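User: Last request for today: this protein with DLL, please.
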Amino acid sequence: MAKYYQPEIETASREQILAWQNERLVKQVKHVWENVPYYRKKMEEKGVTPDDIKGVADLHKLPFLTKDDLREAYPYGLLGKLLSECVRIQSTSGTTGKRVVAFYTQHDVDLWEDCCARAIVAAGGTNEDVCQVSYGYGLFTGGPGLNGGSHKVGCLTLPMSSGNTDRQLQFMTDLGATIICCTPSYAAYLAESIHERSLQDQIKLKAGIFGAEAWSEEMRRDIEQKLNIKAYDIYGLTETSGPGVSFECEEQTGMHINEDHFIAEIIDPKTGEVLPEGEKGELVFTAITKEAFPLLRYRTRDICVLSRKPCSCGRTHVKMSKPMGRSDDMLIVKGVNVFPSQIETVLLEQGYPANYQIIVDRVNHSDTLEVMVEMTPENFSDTLGKITEMEKQLVAALKTMLGIYAKVKLVAPKTIARSEGKAVRIIDKRKI
Ligand code: DLL
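Assistant: Here's the final one, the structure of the complex with DLL:
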């Protein structure tokens, strides 16, 4: 059984990896300088030109890019290729203004799918497998990325998309799926549904590739035991293509970053200073092979640690820990990116004050989102019917903004505790 999808790359010597990174970085900086005026301006402001970048050791001289830059340059401002050369976009959840739109040439799609194929092979996938892809398809990168990777490996691919659990289980049993790709929360839900229906004997799964949201080791053990599989983590973000920036191998002690495509740095989120290996900080990626959306020093806001300890799987690429949190206030609820500011916008638009609290929890491995909102003295009511009606309206407005259900609880004016310092808007009860 093949152990690697691209053995010569995945097990290359550190010297070779560094040589690729040096050469590709220099080329990429020139490409961006010549084709992305937005970033060129940032370089000029910092007094850096492509001549200053001779290799990875000079990376720290380049300016950072953040989500705010993406918003400012929305939609085409960071495009590195002509539209006629681009073949695809993908996007994050969220609404206009908060949306990230990433562009791909055919070459970009190919390399992205290679990264996902590496993850599938690392999870034991071969052309004998039946791979059920139950990440969302469409704008979200999860479905298309793993779908492409599964094709490249030669698995029989079931492009299920998310939801419709009865149908998922029917295809899983009838077609004998051996690999499942979905969010860890959905995997836990599928596992429960399988037990409820006593379908265990009909399940042939051997591996799962789960990512797009934080999940704990306890959750991994629970899913592994219930589905009788090995569960692998996979990481990525829309800005850097999607899933497959890094993936777990059989050692399950961190995710190998595909360093032939991405240079990873860990920085202090407050000062922007690069931290030495092994220190915890914000992960920053420089995409060195992407053509259409070539982001340099992109701040992911994910907090984690890098490790170059040799891995028993034979892969030589650096490993990142599971993200341990974020350096901004973005929440990921059911795989959907939620910013408190989006919730605030809805409340203000609907005539409520900005006195609210967002409570996130995980019940039976599934995220729940609740928004507690104060009524104003003007719209205050203590009749149940009126309150229920007002709550329903807010639920609908929030659904339109966020794309997911949020329970709303209206409370009397001045009942949410006021803070003397920063307002405590988010209560995240999930233990991850
Ligand atoms: O979630 C891409 C993806 C799809 C990854 C399928 C894995 C599998 P976005 O919607 O842009 O892209 O969200 C990116 O999700 O910055 C992390 O905060 C979080 N995230 C992604 N993977 C993991 C993971 C996709 N394995 C944001 N563990 C990232 C924890 C993750 N958090």
